[in-house]
UniProtKB/TrEMBL annotation:
<dbReference type="Pfam" id="PF00072">
    <property type="entry name" value="Response_reg"/>
</dbReference>
<feature type="domain" description="Response regulatory">
    <location>
        <begin position="605"/>
        <end position="728"/>
    </location>
</feature>
<feature type="binding site">
    <location>
        <position position="65"/>
    </location>
    <ligand>
        <name>Cu cation</name>
    </ligand>
</feature>
<dbReference type="GO" id="GO:0038199">
    <property type="term" value="F:ethylene receptor activity"/>
</dbReference>
<keyword id="KW-0675">Receptor</keyword>
<keyword id="KW-0186">Copper</keyword>
<dbReference type="Pfam" id="PF25487">
    <property type="entry name" value="ETR1_N"/>
</dbReference>
<dbReference type="InterPro" id="IPR011006">
    <property type="entry name" value="CheY-like_superfamily"/>
</dbReference>
<dbReference type="Pfam" id="PF01590">
    <property type="entry name" value="GAF"/>
</dbReference>
<keyword id="KW-0812">Transmembrane</keyword>
<dbReference type="InterPro" id="IPR003594">
    <property type="entry name" value="HATPase_dom"/>
</dbReference>
<dbReference type="GO" id="GO:0051740">
    <property type="term" value="F:ethylene binding"/>
</dbReference>
<keyword id="KW-0256">Endoplasmic reticulum</keyword>
<keyword id="KW-0936">Ethylene signaling pathway</keyword>
<dbReference type="Pfam" id="PF02518">
    <property type="entry name" value="HATPase_c"/>
</dbReference>
<feature type="transmembrane region" description="Helical">
    <location>
        <begin position="53"/>
        <end position="72"/>
    </location>
</feature>
<protein>
    <recommendedName>
        <fullName>Ethylene receptor</fullName>
    </recommendedName>
</protein>
Amino acid sequence: MEVCNCIEPQWPADELLMKYQYISDFFIAVAYFSIPLELIYFVKKSAVFPYRWVLVQFGAFIVLCGATHLINLWTFTTHSRTVALVMTTAKVLTAVVSCATALMLVHIIPDLLSVKTRELFLKNKAAELDREMGLIRTQEETGRHVRMLTHEIRSTLDRHTILKTTLVELGRTLALEECALWMPTRTGLELQLSYTLRQQHPVEYTVPIQLPVISQVFATSRAVKISPNSPVARLRPVSGKYMLGEVVAVRVPLLHLSNFQINDWPELSTKRYALMVLMLPSDSARQWHVHELELVEVVADQVAVALSHAAILEESMRARDLLMEQNVALDLARREAETAIRARNDFLAVMNHEMRTPMHAIIALSSLLQETELTPEQRLMVETILKSSNLLATLMNDVLDLSRLEDGSLQLDLGTFNLHTLFREVLNLIKPIAVVKKLPITLNLAPDLPEFVVGDEKRLMQIILNIVGNAVKFSKQGSISVTALVYKSDTRAPDFFVVPTGSHFYLRVKVKDLGAGINPQEIPKLFTKFAQTQSLATRSSGGSGLGLAISKRFVNLMEGNIWIESDGLGKGCTAIFDVKLGISNESSVPKAPASPRHANFDGLKVLVMDENGVSRMVTKGLLVHLGCEVTTASTSEECLRVVSHEHKVVFMDVCMPGVENYRIENYQIALRIHEKFTKQRHQRPLLVALTGNTDKSRKEKCMSFGLDGVLLKPVSLDNMRNVLSDLLEHRVLYEAM
């Protein structure tokens, strides 16, 4: 640097410029020297700054620049060579430090920029975190409100309370000016204003459901902002309002329309919605926030769920009430049915008793008359009377059996009997009628048919007798065949399947006649009570009465099946039935005791107790005809008074069905007779009950009171002879019912 020893100002302006430069250099020097002080203060206060040596270098550069400007102050006047040398040194050092600093900044600036970038990233992340925390706090607040609202909504299962509570809680939580619920009408074409927040009794007016604003809301599950002037939002007075608050609407699914039915509303299959409208306060700048809209949507769903629960409860309550009413009605019907059954049974039993008493007189007197000398014409009349009386007695038994079958009180009386003998007895009973009609009857028993079986002999005999009797009754010519065999499975009875075992088998009986036949369409009617088909009517034989109806029930009771086959009118018919019977060994069959039949019972003293004078007289007549010495009594007290060891048999009437406690003393008289002969038991007379009741329980009751047998009215002369023979021979009556 060339140094001038002197400067001579040439004009005043140059001197002025020099003064300005002098002053400027001074202030520049002061500024340069103040910057290092600030940097030193910054470095001292910043304990984490990673580039302290860079700051020291930068500070040295600034000091040198300041020193250069400061030294330059002495160059405006005459100065020495030393000043020039110092000035030159300062400028060289300043240049060196400036270059070094510039080179260093090339390496430092990228690092500083990356730090600045990270700082900006962290600031952005911090802002996002703040937003997320705010959202979380908002969601927590919304969740708290939802839980609170849900608790309030579900605290009851009454739909009106649910809807009213929803509006109140939403209005309080969201600070609403008004909140309303529009419900579909019964036609489904309109929405009706049903509930509001501010009005206790809202005016019930309707809006068409086809409005665009309603369709817009129903098309989405989200809350939708709607115009405050829409028909469904005009619920608050607008006078004095500068600006109406924002309005949102949301649909409320009606999961089942019966939730909202009134009386007889029809059930519609299309999905239905209610409309909830929420309004912010007017004259305020408040707007709907996202979390508030979410709260409204969640509450709408919760209301739908609560309403469905309420509907289930209402349906269950209605079902329970209906079930209770039905139970009451069923219980009343059951009691009425039981009363009717008891009345029917009592009526039948009374009628049975009242009918058997005159029947007893008719049959007994007819049998006595038959023992006298009669002309052939008179004997035919007496035999006709006896047969007609026996048929009438059979009809009475059928009526009682059918009654017990219908109420389920009839049970099978199982025992071992000879099956082959049973078939022969049936044919012996039917043959006299068949001979008169010139109808030959043949019996075919399969070789493998067991001889001794276990079953209800009397019921099986009644079934066979009914079917064979019908064949004889409805046939005018031809022949009748009865076939019995062990049943094997076939396809003619597709609804009936058998499972034979080693202890039982199924008996099949076929009764075939060559009579007038039956129209196949009329066959099902034959098993109904008192059936009268056209084909039967043409035979002038009457209907089938109760025979087939009772037979079908007996067959079902024996776990079997019965049906009739016919190819049509004039081609005859075949009656077939299967019943379940047990298998018995011949050695296990009890041998029936031999019962010698005495011609008379001369001198046998018998006591007859019967309150009915006619019945008492008839029974006495039978016994007197057999040679007995008969004493009669009309009351139980008289019977107890006159009975003695001389009497060998006491017949006592114990039956007055339909009255439970009637004549209980007639049962107790048997016990008192036992007590009277306690010390002389071998001299006690045999006690036989005379009854018109065919119920098995009646016989068991008689036997439980110490009676030795039960005799069913009506009684013929032969029956009385057999009864006395059994009593005197075995001192017990095996079977007389």
